[in-house]
Design the sequence.
């Protein structure tokens, strides 16, 4: 699913595809996508790598930050880093270059790792939500069962599950010959039948997007119901629930829906452009996760001040906590 090419346009690409046949020897046109999308991807990668690396640094270097919840945040940050490294550089080259230039082995490996990291990211988000729900519904029992060893076991299980569930991507990914202003090589998924391809895409939509979204929504609905009476804290947590669910929905929804539409035969130049935007949105999620889950949290903020005191010299040391900090503390600290 990494390949964005004329092959994605299908029979509806119209005059642009016809022109490519006539002008086959002149090379493809230079579109705005060729420089704009790689630039945006590069910015996403820079912000995401710096932010997620800082999250991992402050948790591993500060003993008070080594909590169960923060262990999941580190796992999420690690997943986001791998996702950015595996996705961004290779996808960015597809816009200025008309062909896949990295060979069949990298075609299989890159797409497999993309699926693995996307799967692991979504399952980790779900695990975090289930963990917070468990603490809220069963605060006493959670003291016995929520241990770093249990969090490690769950994290390892997430990665094993993601590695196994993503195997079809490696099996059916291969190089194909195509034509776009001359002979080109595309990295594409080639399934034995259209039915099998649609089945896998539907499975991917459910596993990577819909089921995690339903899990996150259900967990926080139970949490809000358990908290019961209206209060300032309840309203703050409600806002954070909306932000978390909306962020997940907005970032991952467009690309998943575009892929689903393509699986059922809808191919057009408009959908091709929407898919580009969808990729940008899904990659952005790995950059904003550190902001949502860590940088705004009270405990993380204190740890950042200890790790990088010079950065915070311009701010007051004992200023009043921002109004929306309570819900971030709820997410990034132990109960």
Sequence:
């Amino acid at each position: 699913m990494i390949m964005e090419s004329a092959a994605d346009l299908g029979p509806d690409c119209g005059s642009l595809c016809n022109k490519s046949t006539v002008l086959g020897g002149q090379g493809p046109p230079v579109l705005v996508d060729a420089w704009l999308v790689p630039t945006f991807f590069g910015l996403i990668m820079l912000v995401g790598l710096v932010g997620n690396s800082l999250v991992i640094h402050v948790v591993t270097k500060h003993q008070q930050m080594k909590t169960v919840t923060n262990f999941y945040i580190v796992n999420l940050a690690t997943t986001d880093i791998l996702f950015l490294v595996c996705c961004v550089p290779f996808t960015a080259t597809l816009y200025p270059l008309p062909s896949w230039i990295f060979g069949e082995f990298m075609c299989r490996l890159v797409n497999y790792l993309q699926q693995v990291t996307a799967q692991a990211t979504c399952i980790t988000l779900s695990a975090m939500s289930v963990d917070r729900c468990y603490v809220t519904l069963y605060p006493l029992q959670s003291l016995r069962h929520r241990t770093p060893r249990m969090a490690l076991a769950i994290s390892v299980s997430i990665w094993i599950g993601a590695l196994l569930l993503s195997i079809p991507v490696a099996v059916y990914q291969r190089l194909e010959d195509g034509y776009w202003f001359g002979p080109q090589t595309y990295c594409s998924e080639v399934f034995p039948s259209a039915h099998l391809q649609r089945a896998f895409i539907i499975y991917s939509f459910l596993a990577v997007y819909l089921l995690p979204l339903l899990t996150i929504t259900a967990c926080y609905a139970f949490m809000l119901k358990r908290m019961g009476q209206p209060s300032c804290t309840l309203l703050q947590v409600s806002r954070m629930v909306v932000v978390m669910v909306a962020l997940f929905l907005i970032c991952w929804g467009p690309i998943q829906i575009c892929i689903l539409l393509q699986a059922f035969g809808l191919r057009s130049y408009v959908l091709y452009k929407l898919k580009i935007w969808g990729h940008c949105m899904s990659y952005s999620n790995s950059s904003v996760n550190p902001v949502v889950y860590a940088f705004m949290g009270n405990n993380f903020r204190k740890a950042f001040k200890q790790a990088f005191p010079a950065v915070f010299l311009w701010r007051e040391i004992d200023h009043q906590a921002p109004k929306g900090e309570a819900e971030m503390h709820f997410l990034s600290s132990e109960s």
In short: The chain has twelve helices and two strands. The two ends are 41 Å apart (CA to CA). The first helix runs from residue 15 to 22.
